[in-house]
Write a structure and sequence with these properties.
Largest sheet: 8 strands, parallel, barrel
Strand order of the largest sheet: 2-3-5-6-7-8-9-10
Shape: globular
Distance between the termini: 35 Å
Radius of gyration: 20 Å
Number of domains: 1
Number of strands: 10
CATH superfamily: Glycosidases
């Protein structure tokens, strides 16, 4: 039986952040710009690929709940660091040269992982025909290729239903009507971008950096992104279906629960809905936003305790978003511009040396347009949109250096 997340205070600085400016694949201009940079993406086809997929059930509710699947993967032995780059690709506002320069700057910090949406709505805009899926990989190919060119591993967020696959027609962030349809997309994505995937075979000029970790949905406990009401039972079915499908393609992959804003409420509700989830979760992503680094760390500690209590103590934590906006001062998640560099350096350094089982820490976000002083979404970025260093990006470098330096673990989680 479905159970709903208890009501909680909405944070407009988080829930209203744009994820996707325009439907469809990345613009032709951006693809051509990427080609001009020598990436060679799509060169073999002259355009976005449209590959037939495998057959799957007709869109609609799934008849049977998925099994719990394979036992959980062990936590990674090393922690990764990076930043979100979703605004570079989702906004369709930057040229190929601008995107290239921003990714070069991110890679120059020592970051090794970049998080960005793998939008189902962009990749499969039309429903299956004759039991066959057809995928347009143009949007995803550009992301995979440009990140690989700069030595950045993609942490994709598999998210957002196309119009034909939504539980609530016309609702932008409606969950999928069919977990199996979403899982088919997830498997096709893994077959293309995972180890030995079709994308890497088609582009041998790139040093292959296959996807090894997949985040299933973004903030499924936030009604802005699982609309109109989060449903832990439905999300568990989606997670397990996707995990099982990806595991069939790549048994070494880690499939993690999408970044949670309130793990204390959502994780126990998931376990109540599916007790067999215990032992079958490769990791839990969290978004521990807070007014300052102390609050961020306190929320990481609280999330670890939630997992221990729920029987998921062996699951790794992935901090896939944390950060601060500098405008306007009334926004939740605001930090004064003069304070933010210190917050970034302190939080990153601390996240690199906790005893909380953190597998990755990714700042939100690398760059935003910095246009409208009244729009908090435009001011989370730490690297100037026009290029060049900033106190924030310098602090990111310093914090990352400390996070990677040998040091004793702090006794944060006990």
């Amino acid at each position: 039986m479905s159970s709903a997340v208890p009501a909680k205070r909405r944070d407009p600085s988080r829930s209203e952040r744009p994820r996707w400016r325009r439907r469809g694949a990345l613009s032709a201009a951006a693809v051509l710009a990427a080609l001009a940079l020598g990436v060679g993406i799509l060169a073999s086809t002259g355009g976005p690929s449209s590959d037939p997929g495998t057959s799957s059930p007709t869109p609609g509710g799934d008849a049977h709940a998925p099994s719990a699947g394979a036992a959980a993967q062990p936590p990674p032995t090393t922690e990764q660091f990076g930043a979100s780059v979703n605004r570079l690709f989702n906004d369709h506002a930057d040229s190929g040269a601008q995107i290239d320069a921003q990714l070069q700057a991110l890679a120059g910090t020592g970051a090794t992982v970049a998080r960005s949406d793998a939008l189902w709505e962009a990749t499969e805009p039309a429903p299956p025909s004759g039991g066959k899926h057809r995928y347009d990989w143009g949007f995803d190919d550009v992301i995979a290729g440009l990140l690989a060119q700069h030595g950045l591993t993609w942490l994709p967020i598999l998210d957002y239903s196309p119009s034909w696959a939504r539980t609530v027609p016309g609702l932008l962030h409606s969950p999928p009507a069919s977990a199996s349809q979403f899982a088919t997309f997830a498997a096709a994505f893994a077959a293309r971008y995972g180890p030995g995937g079709a994308f890497w075979r088609e582009h041998p000029q790139l040093a292959a950096l296959p996807v090894d970790t997949y985040e299933v949905w973004n903030e499924p406990d936030n009604p802005e992104f699982w609309s109109p009401t989060p449903d832990p039972a439905s999300y568990v079915d989606l997670y397990l279906s996707a995990r099982d499908a990806i595991d069939a393609v790549d048994p070494t992959a880690r499939v993690i629960v999408g970044g949670l804003t309130d793990p204390a409420a959502f994780v126990p509700a998931m376990i109540d809905a599916r007790p067999d989830l215990v032992g079958h979760v490769d990791g839990i992503a969290i978004h521990p936003y807070g007014a300052n680094p102390s609050v961020v760390l306190a929320r990481v500690r609280a999330a670890r305790q939630v997992l221990v209590t729920a029987g998921l103590g062996g699951a790794a934590l992935y901090v896939t978003e944390f950060g601060w906006t500098t405008h306007p001062a009334s926004a939740l998640g605001y930090a004064p511009a003069q304070a933010r560099p210190g917050y970034i350096a302190t939080a990153l350094a601390a996240l690199g040396h906790t005893d909380c089982g953190v597998a990755a820490a990714l700042l939100y976000t690398w760059v935003t347009p910095e246009r409208d002083l009244s729009d908090h979404n435009d001011w989370f970025g730490i690297h100037p949109p026009g290029g060049g260093p900033s106190p924030d990006s310098d602090a990111f470098v310093a914090g990352l250096r400390e996070a990677l330096a040998p040091a004793p673990r702090s006794n944060l989680c006990g």
